[in-house]
Every structure is written in C-alpha cells, then in structure tokens.
Amino acid sequence: MQLRLPPSFLWGAALSSYQVEGQNFNSDWYLWERQKDLKQAGSACNHYHLFANDFKLAQQLNLNSLRISVEWARISPDASSFSEKELEHYLNVIQSLKDHNLKPIITLHHFTNPIWFSEKGGWLDHKNIDYFLKYLRKTIQYLKDKVEYWLIFNEPLVYLYNGFIEGIWPPGEQSLKSAKKALDNILKAYLLGYQEIKSIYQGTSITPRVSLAKNMRVFSPYPDYKLALNSLTAGIRSRLFNYFILEYLHKKRALDFIGLNYYGKEYDKFSGFLGKEGQYLASEERKNSLGWTINSRDFYKALVSLKKFNLPVLITENGTAEDDPVLYQDYLLSHLRSLGLAIKEGLDVRGYLWWSLIDNFEWDKGFSKRFGLFEVDYSNFQREPREFSAVYSKIAGENQIEI
Ligand code: BGC
User: Cβ–Cβ contacts within 10 Å for residue 148, how many?
Assistant: First the structure.
C-alpha cells in the first residue's frame, strides 16, 4: 500500500561543514588529526567551493530540503572577532540552497569547535558558554531572513561520549566527571541559545523552528542466561542515551520539534553501571560496513516511542555505509517503510533527510566509509550518483512511501 504524504513534507539529505568543506584549519579536529596521526580531512569534498554544484545535484534528485552546518571556527577566527567574509560566504551558500528550491536546515554545532575555544578549556569551562552564544547571536542575526529551521547542536551525547569518555575525539578526555560537566554546559548553552533565537526573530515574519539533532538507538538485551539483568542494562542505557535530554529540554519548553538521527541498534550486556555492548545478530539482522547492527523494524519502535512528546519529528539523519551497493536501497526502502508505518500510527513526521548527500569525511574513520547518495572520487572531487539515489529521487518526486 502507498502512503501519500502532505505536499509540505521535506525530502532531503544532510551534510556537515567539517566533513565536506575542506581546509578548516581553525577547527579543533584539524589539530586532532595531526596530534593523533589520523587520516586528515584535508580538502574533504571541496564542498566549500563546490556547494552550488552539490545543491544542483540535490535538486536534480527531487529533494526540497538540505541540512548543512556552518563552521564556528570560520565565523569566529578568534575569541573577539567575526569574519565578515565567512558570514558572507554562508549567506551565499544559503541563498544558493534557496535558489535550488532546497529549504535550509542549519546546524550551528556539528562536533567541531574553534581551536581558540578548546584552548580556553572548551565545554569544560562554564565561562566559555558565552563565546558560543556570541557566535550563535551573530550567525542568526546575519542569516535569519533566509532560515526557519535551526539545530543548535548535533548529537550532544555522541560528541560527549567520544570526546570525553572514550577519548577518541577531541578533546580526548576519559572521565565521566568531565563528560557530566561538559553536558551541563552544553545544555545550558542550548537553553540560552534557544531563547536568544526566539528573541532575535521577534517581530519578524518568520517563526523559527528550533531543536537539536538527537541520536537514538534501540537498546535490546543480549539474549543469554542473564537476560533479566541485560534487560535492566538495556533499559538504563536507553533512558540515559535516548530520552534524558529530550525529556529535559521538553520540560523546559525548549524544543519546537524533535530532530532525530537514527542508524541502528545494539545489544546490551549487564556489566557495571553503564553495562556494555555485546555482539549478537537476530535472524533478520545484519551489520553494515561500520559493524552497526541494522534492523529497520527497530526504527519503527524508536519512532513510535516519540509519540509521548506530542511534538513534530524531523528525521535529521538516517543512512548507512555499505560494501555491497545493493544494500543501500535495501536500507532506504525498509527504513522508509518503518517511517510510513509510524506516520500511519499518528506520529507527526515533517520530513526525512538521508545521511548523506555525498560521501564525506567520517571523523576518526577517515574517508573509507561511504554514506553518500553520490559517490565522491577524492582524487578529482567528481560526484557520481549511486544506483539507489534514483530510487530515492522517485520516492521524493512521487511524495509517497510503500508500507
Ligand atoms: C553524525 C555524522 C556522521 C554519521 C555517520 C552521525 O552520528 O552526525 O557526523 O558522519 O553519524 O557516522
């Protein structure tokens, strides 16, 4: 059966500045790659110069929206000034989105910080919140006439886990105490930023829609003899990772919608307070090229669990990186089916953005994992459509999902 969607439904894709732009010298990730001898983002996809070309590709796929991020380190080259040139650049980028009939969805913080901000203690020092707010204020004032959708942060808990607990991302901390401190500061920055955006738009003809991109994962108990304890672990991990931030911000009335990033699931074993992930695959499941467990029915579960918030939902990221090209289409269709079923159940979904429009720099994993609707040849920056992009294009054009 085909489920028709409203004409306002957003069909799009997502990108982030550091992962595609290239030459972000002033960003903490730039230093980190060198300090840790990781694969370097370098020119990435050269999107900084090729943005209009990329937006044309998106438009040709029948997409009507695109999520991008603006790079704080470009806009604030140091603690006390802003770069008019870079603000102007982003103004042109957003104008170009509009010229290509793509509704801009703009992220302000997608994992990266300016080096000067990290040197001042980054998110560990509450005095630094003000620097973020200055950047937010300046950026919103500059771009406000062209943007309705703002995401203040991308996946705060993923950022904190990798950067402050595992230590595999900058600033490379390995301390629960630091993670908690950074979380408090990020939440404070979000709440103040939310108010700030609302007041900047006051008296204008645009009602801004403000949220964050929240990663959700389905946590299932590892099916061994400790099933009861494993269930408890999965429950705790789910509460902390999936719902804590959403509930907190919702209670503060600081979410206009839920931005949801969803990729896969994990099986949990009882062990210590936070438990740990166990390796398991149920019969209908498989792993993608990053080793993530793919189960599209769980996407449905994650979605319907959001009904209790009674807020619109925008899928700000969903996607996969595969070795076998056939599997992209498989993933797309099965996840869209789950999305359609959740919509039929009454979830108010406003749009779906595939991660990612083009292959890009996958953080500590370099360029080998490819999520793009378009494959990038990094030797010459050519983009070639992957086969499944035609399927996505047809769905977006017809504005209906097979359920
Ligand atoms: C992040 C992206 C990342 C993608 C795939 C998301 O969690 O927002 O930056 O590339 O996952 O790992």
Answer: 15
| Pocket perturbation via mutation, ligand 1, pick of 107, 290, 362 by most ligand atoms within 8 A of CB | 362
Separation of alpha carbons 387 and 375, rounded Å: 10
pTM: 0.98
Atom index in ligand 1 nearest the CA of residue 355 equals 4
Which residue's C-alpha comes closest to atom 3 of ligand 1? 362
Question: Tens-digit pLDDT profile for the chain (403 aa)?
Answer: 999 999 999 999 999 999 999 999 999 999 999 999 999 999 999 999 999 999 999 999 999 999 999 999 999 999 999 999 999 999 999 999 999 999 999 999 999 999 999 999 999 999 999 999 999 999 999 999 999 999 999 999 999 999 999 999 999 999 999 999 999 999 999 999 999 999 999 999 999 999 999 999 999 999 999 999 999 999 999 999 999 999 999 999 999 999 999 999 999 999 988 899 999 999 999 999 999 999 999 999 999 999 999 999 999 999 999 999 999 999 999 999 999 999 999 999 999 999 999 999 999 999 999 999 999 999 999 999 999 999 999 999 999 999 9
Matching residue, tokens 């829609």? 209
Q: To test the ligand 1 pocket, which listed residue (317, 368, 371, 373) has its Cβ within 8 A of the most ligand atoms?
A: 317
- What amino acid is encoded at 234 in this protein? A
CA of 317 to the centre of ligand 1 (A): 8
Centroid of ligand 1 to alpha carbon of 212 (angstroms): 14
* Amino acid present at 351: G
Helix (H) or strand (E) holding 294: strand 293-294
End-to-end CA gap in the chain: 6
Distance 204 CA to ligand 1 centre (A): 33
User: Which residues, listed in sequence order, are joined to residue 336 by a DSSP beta bridge?
Assistant: none
CA distance 318 to 294: 12
State how far the Cα of 268 lies from the Cα of 227, in Å rounded to an integer.
10
Q: Spell out which residues line ligand 1, taking CB within 6 angstroms.
A: 16, 19, 154-155, 158, 215, 261, 317, 355, 362
